[in-house]
Amino acid sequence: MAEVKKSRDPFIDNARFILVFLVVLGHFFVPIRGDHPVINEINNLLGLFRMPALILLTGFLSKGFMKPGFIKNITMKLLVPYFIFQIIFGVYYYFLYNDPTYEFYLLSPQFTLWFLLSLFFWNLMLFVFTKIKYPLLIAVILGVGVGYISEIGHYMSMHRTFVFFPFFLLGYYMKLEHLKWVKKRFMKVAAVAAFVFVYIMFEQVLSLNESLNWLFGYTPYAGLGYEEWYAGFFRLAIYGLSLIVGFAFLAFVPTRETFFTELGKRTAYIYILHGVVVETMYELYLYEALSSVWDYTLILVYGVIITLTLGSNRTVRWMRPLIEGRVAQPILNRKN
């Protein structure tokens, strides 16, 4: 009898969809976060876990790196789309901003595209880190230590690659039962307490205005205004707080099939494409449309519409050749 392929647990895809929605929401918040402290605080709290948790779950789904053809596969699904959209977005932003001083660099990722480049490197790094002792400890040391090197920054997403790699590696080593331990009885109460604790602690660690710059993970400590030897302890604290609130978030994720479970398998489409939509909306009219704090409720509506639209069957059908790198498949499949 043929073996039936086990489908992916809905819990994972539910979590991925909610997280990518929060990423979309966060990118809506960033341009106007300085106008209202409450929005700034909410965005900072969400920023603590949305990308780390999404990266952790991505690492959890990357356990097949030893399979034949793995490097070719990630090249087609990560590196090819990166270069395609890096060029497309670069040209688009040049005309959108109508800025003659706008500079485009092929290896300096546009907006959301850093994730594709970092994810490519994270997958390659598994070949090394799964063969050494204390891989998680070394990953954390590198993630903290890279902040002291001012020369490593946005270029090729090197800084973010090392900063967020511990979450990816942790996800790789986790099993489903590790992720679902937060679904035990009374864990939602503990999760609420965790959110409150982390909110208070985060306010004590960093000021409101500088918090998000730390969470972005692409600026060395000196660029953040911290040249002291103990700057790395702030990143360690952020690592800890991110994990606490990240698992607290998972406590509220549905474990059963929902209307958005299938969309959780299409987060690449939502993530890659939403940035250009958000920037276009702000450039054309959104700054003027948001005149009061109540107008910001529109952002929730826009966030839902954009997330559902970019994850729809139609978007997947139209964009699959580019998002999944299929346009390069004839070249990659060509035999020497």
Automatic annotation (TrEMBL):
InterPro entries: Acyl_transf_3_dom, Nod_factor_acetyltransferase. Pfam families: Acyl_transf_3 (PF01757). The keyword Transport does not apply. The chain crosses the membrane at residues 15-33, 45-66, 78-96, 111-129, 134-150, 156-174, 186-209, 229-255, 267-287, 293-311. It is found in: Membrane. GO terms for molecular function: acyltransferase activity, transferring groups other than amino-acyl groups. Residues 10-310 form the Acyltransferase domain. Keywords: Acyltransferase, Membrane, Transferase, Transmembrane, Transmembrane helix. The keyword Transmembrane applies. Its main location: membrane. Belongs to the acyltransferase 3 family. This is Acyltransferase. It comes from Alkalibacillus haloalkaliphilus.
